[in-house]
2Fe-2S iron-sulfur cluster binding domain-containing protein (Vineibacter terrae), 382 residues
Amino acid sequence: MELHATRRYCLGSQQFPLPTTVSAADGPVERCKGSRVGHLVKITNTGAEIACGVGVTILEAALDAGIPYPHGCQSGNCGACKSHLLDGAVTLDGYSDFALMDEERDRGLILACRAVPDSACEVAWLDEDDLIVHPRRILATTVVAIDDATHDIKRVLLAVSSGGPFTFSAGQFASVTFDGAPPRDYSMANPPGASLLEFHIRRMAGGNTSAHVATQVKLGDKVRVEGPFGTSYLRESHRGPILAIAGGSGLAPIKSIVEQALALKMPQPIHLYFGARDERGLYLVEHFAALAAAHPTLRFTPVLSDPEGATTRRTGFVHEIAGRDLADLDGCKAYIAGPPVMVEAATRLLLARGLRRIDVHADAFYTAAEMQEAGRKTGAQM
Ligand SMILES: Cc1cc2nc3c(=O)[nH]c(=O)nc-3n(C[C@H](O)[C@H](O)[C@H](O)COP(=O)(O)OP(=O)(O)OC[C@H]3O[C@@H](n4cnc5c(N)ncnc54)[C@H](O)[C@@H]3O)c2cc1C
Ligand code: FES
């Protein structure tokens, strides 16, 4: 079993932590247990704000404050205290790979029993649905359909020929490799269990893989799919309203989430907002209009940010329209996907409107270069 030495992690306005490796020469963190000087830690699940003394772990401070923080071994070996680091910076003392995998850590998870705050922090222990883990597969697939969803988005259907079964949660993504192009992350647009894998791939100016898909990929091509990855998936046991916001090909994971919620007969209202620049950027509008007509819980609103000429559609930025429509976000979970600028603006707006960070599940479609710059991993690197 791999053991991890002390490391420091921080999370500011970024969605994911930016790890800084502390070398063994740095030695263990000096402890002064119970010191009154320390950092405030907000525990989102209860809303409590506790003082964590210098050198005291978040778990120790929470238990001292009478908070029933989930835990087991208290030594970084069982994973029972796994939590989201929502804000702030911590030092993680040694722990086992079983308790916290690198992929989880890179996605912003920590072990509360090993985490000593380096600043004011906000953490949330995992809810039941956060614990879903699907086996990672490498699939051999074949292109069985490819068509234009819009002028710049291709809809690609893949049949799995080997490597399955491929299980995933609605909203997750995979690392997809078309022959002759670098691997890129793309979100499954089909709900789990569908016979074909569906991807929506928008051509990006100057892009490698998306241009390859737009111009070269044809029926019968072999495609490698590795996954699933990602934590922005449908929380199936949640019963509050669902707010789903998609921009462009961000409709892919949102389609999977909405279709799965309907297939499971989840009873709550589902507010689906789909933003595009102009009419030609919209797709699957009839599909979602038909779903909304058949399911009274679903409301579908296409929004144009920059329409050419007169339109009967709603106009403006998609997240602002959603925010304006929904006065009460109490108990709501939001799923957001698409261009980073939209996802970041939507997340900011919803947090400012009082939605808790653990209720915002966002996938910003960063490019591989942007991910590298921010020290994040793509599916291909996980
Ligand atoms: C979790 C996740 C899910 C995603 N899901 C989808 C999806 O469902 N559908 C979808 O369409 N997209 C999705 N994406 C985006 C996708 O992974 C690709 O980033 C996108 O298709 C562009 O890839 P590309 O190879 O065409 O472009 P790239 O070759 O990566 O280039 C992208 C841009 O970066 C520029 N660039 C290239 N190299 C550099 C460099 N070294 N320095 C600076 N700039 C550079 C290029 O000029 C171009 O403008 C997702 C991304 C993530 C992270
Ligand atoms: S309580 Fe076991 S890993 Fe934290």
Remarks:
- The first strand starts at residue 3 and ends at 4.
- Residues 242-371 form a domain with the Rossmann fold fold (CATH 3.40.50.80).
- Confidence is low (pLDDT under 50) at residues 12-35.
- Residues 107 and 382 are 11 Å apart (CA to CA).
